[in-house]
Each structure stands twice: as structure tokens, then as C-alpha cells.
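Record type: monomer structure entry
Structure origin: computed from sequence
Chain ID: A
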Amino acid sequence: MLTNEHVTTAKQFLIDSDGYFDRGDQMQGSEKLWGAAAHAIMAAAQQRGWKFGTHRYMCEAADSLAEELGDPLVSSDFGLAEKFHANFYHDFMEDFQLRRDRSAVHRLVNRVLSLPEFSSID
């Protein structure tokens, strides 16, 4: 995928995740939310020439981006996105966790997609 495709996918998955959660489908909402975060990080990594093809590389990219931006929430919010990925498989998150942590993943995706290099991508 090209960088702009990762950006577009991240935006769409964020919308899709909200729809699933609104309909009460926690598992699909969780997976789409994870996908939004993953594609946002992949876009940033690809733009910078960083590796991102494995889960480990995406984690490293999130940490590197947090350091570059001076924003530790990028790393911690990505960690919460990973929790949603696990929730897709195990359906273990409580309602209060879903509500609380969804906003952090939204913050991550919006933070990454608001970077100047992505401003012209719809």
C-alpha cells in the first residue's frame, strides 16, 4: 500500500469502528479501531522510511514517532490500540474500558493523521 492508502484506510476504519461500537458489536469495533491505529502508524513509518511490516516494527515506529514528536501519548495510546486488537480475539474488555480507551486510540489516529505531511490526503 502507498502512504496515502494507509491514511485513507485509517480514516475509514475509525469511522467503521464507531459504527460497530454504536451497534453493540464490541469485537468488530475493536478490530477496526486497532486497524485505524495500525494504518496511521504505518503511514507515518512509511513516510519516514522506517520498517513497519511486523507488529514489532509497528511498535518501534510508534515509539520512534513519540520521540520525534515529543509526545509520549503516541506510544501509550498505541499500546491501548493493541489491547483492542487482543479484544477482537478474546472479548475481555469491560464496557468502561471500551469507553475510556476508545478516546485514547481516536486521539492517536487523529494526532498522526494531523501531521503536516498528511494534510492534503482525503
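Annotation 1: The chain has a mean pLDDT of 96.
Annotation 2: The chain is about 80% helix and 0% strand.
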